[in-house]
């Protein structure tokens, strides 16, 4: 089989895996494709967290022994992190498939290659790292979860060419075009939760649901960061406190918030997390721990600039999505997404790693893991007054 054929079949397995988009947390999305005589004869994917090993389901669906010379493509190695080390490996060896091609290894370093080695011991020929970057990228949320036992904190920004998120007047709808905004809906469907700051909630009154053509509107958990519960002081409450999904809304506040406002929200059916205040700052590590305790494996922060800047200042942002539209404002008073750092030297710049680029209409998406410099100086004056 040529390299290009191997990649073509692995793409079939990847497309299969993506059918489980947003449905497998905290488990990984996984896809498999069995190839006989140059044709895919059966595929399988994980559609829920507790699916039995997909290798078992794949051979059950085939309903007979694979032909001699067949090859099995797996986007993820059967390993302890996906609970497939025993069942998956056994199913493959018992099936008699002689050749297994794997995309990503088990994401936990001490488990990597255990599945591949067990297959080899069982007499199966194994080839690894086919489209490894795509296969690893597919599970950026569950990989982070099994590696760190912590949710991944990701932020999204939609900016002009000069890095602005709104005009000086505050007007921001829309900077990016419809195809890029549709792609945001896809990520909203994947992440188990979305978060916004109180300012964004009051200014934009967003719905924070995933609306994809041909699919039912979907709503994950919705977090609002509101230290003093100013969003509960408004005469008319924001939509996400009153809509049909309001029991998916959690307001994250501090013990400085008024108990009357907490009661008002709880009466509406909205959940409230009261976190202890540390130096009057939003206690992100406490929030992270609380998410981990309730099994929330990822948070997609959609602004505003204060909330995401504070995540950066405290080194709590793990991943960043930047959509960039081909427009320029050229106005110093237009709003920037990230603010409040004193970056004197390029060596102090924050850099994205494992960067991926995608194009949506005229806009570009650049996304990657956030890598912090050794030294990060915060300009304390920027967010000091309110
Ligand atoms: N202006 C701007 C964005 N703004 C974001 O979209 C949110 C609206 O959410 P919803 O009401 O659920 O559609 C809003 O709160 C803000 O976070 N997003 C983008 O992709 N591109 C854009 O140009």
Radius of gyration: 23 Å
The geometry reads as elongated
The structural domain count equals: 2
| Bound ligands, each once | ligand AOF
Largest sheet: 9 strands, mixed
Please identify the structural class as seen in this structure: alpha/beta
CATH architecture of the largest domain: 3-Layer(aba) Sandwich
Concise account of the structure shown:
The protein has 386 residues and is α/β, with parallel strands linked by helices.
Structural description of this entry:
It holds the Pfam family RibD_C. In the N-terminal section; belongs to the cytidine and deoxycytidylate deaminase family. It catalyses: 5-amino-6-(5-phospho-D-ribitylamino)uracil + NADP(+) = 5-amino-6-(5-phospho-D-ribosylamino)uracil + NADPH + H(+); 2,5-diamino-6-hydroxy-4-(5-phosphoribosylamino)-pyrimidine + H2O + H(+) = 5-amino-6-(5-phospho-D-ribosylamino)uracil + NH4(+). Its EC number is 3.5.4.26, 1.1.1.193. Its cofactor is Zn(2+). With about 375 residues, the chain is of the alpha/beta class. The protein has 2 domains: about 5-140, Cytidine Deaminase, domain 2, CATH 3.40.140; about 140-370, 3-Layer(aba) Sandwich (Dihydrofolate Reductase, subunit A), CATH 3.40.430. About 30% of the residues lie in helices and about 25% in strands. The protein is built from 11 helices and 16 strands. The chain has helices at about 5-15, 55-60, 85-95, 115-120, 130-140, 140-150, 180-190, 200-205, 260-270, 285-295, 305-315; strands at about 30-35, 40-45, 70-75, 100-105, 125, 150-160, 165, 195, 220-225, 250-255, 270-275, 300, 320-325, 335, 350-360, 365-370. The strands form 3 sheets. Strands 11-10-9-8-12-6-13-16-15 form a 9-stranded mixed β-sheet, sandwiched between helices. Strands 2-1-3-4-5 form a 5-stranded mixed β-sheet, with helices on both faces. Strands 7-14 form a two-stranded antiparallel ribbon. Helix 2 (about 55-60) runs parallel beside helix 3 (about 85-95) and helix 3 packs parallel to helix 4 (about 115-120). The protein is elongated and about 70 Å long. The mean pLDDT is about 95. Bound molecules: the ligand Nc1c(N[C@@H]2O[C@H](COP(=O)(O)O)[C@@H](O)[C@H]2O)[nH]c(=O)[nH]c1=O. The ligand Nc1c(N[C@@H]2O[C@H](COP(=O)(O)O)[C@@H](O)[C@H]2O)[nH]c(=O)[nH]c1=O binds near residues 173, 181 and 184.
